[in-house]
Amino acid sequence: MAATELISALLLFLLICSSSISSSEKTRRPEPCKRLVLYFHDIVYNGKNAQNATSAIVASPAWVGRARGFYLYDRKDFFSAWFGFSFVFNSTRLDGTINFAGADDIMKTTRDLSVVGGTGDFFMTRGIATLMTDAFEDDRYFRLRVDVKLYECY
């Protein structure tokens, strides 16, 4: 009887030791399977700037797509927004969409949005998009640098 209790106690001790050793090891973060850097810009028309600012393209950038969706300003005491949009690629190299959703605390230097899916070349993708304000002019114009890291690619 005492022998079985000793064996049971020894097995329990070994089980606890092995679980604590395995949990103390550092877990490796996966590397992104695809990484993109995009620039989003928006021009807000308030009646004083009625001309179409994008009619004459300056510096002829390589347009790869268009963002479709919305952003809502959700606070009055400081600038904060909620984004929900799809980036639709219209280039010959990439085809499909990437879907973004999440809160954007505009006053922070960098902030993250969730990549919640996609179509075409980005079918069922998941990842993180890190936003950084690249340019800002009052309430009329802003440009965001978006570093997209995809961790599930099919």
Question: In short, what is this structure?
Answer:
The protein is mainly beta.
Report on the structure:
InterPro entries: Allene_oxi_cyc_Dirigent, Dirigent. This is Dirigent protein. This protein is mostly beta strands. It has one domain. It has one helix at residues 2-24; strands at residues 34-43, 65-73, 81-90, 95-104, 110-120, 126-137, 141-152. Strands 1-7-6-5-4-3-2 form a 7-stranded antiparallel sheet, with no helix packed on it.
**Number of spatially distinct domains:** 1
Strand order of the largest sheet: 1-7-6-5-4-3-2
Structural class label: mainly beta
The termini sit apart by 57 Å
Give average pLDDT, whole number: 79
Taking all Cα atoms into account, the compactness measure Rg is: 24 Å
Secondary-structure element sequence?
HEEEEEEE
Quickly count the helices. Answer: 1
Strand content: over 45%
* Helicity level: 10-25%
Q: What is the overall silhouette?
A: elongated
Strands, total number: 7
Largest sheet: 7 strands, antiparallel
Q: Show unreliable segments.
A: none
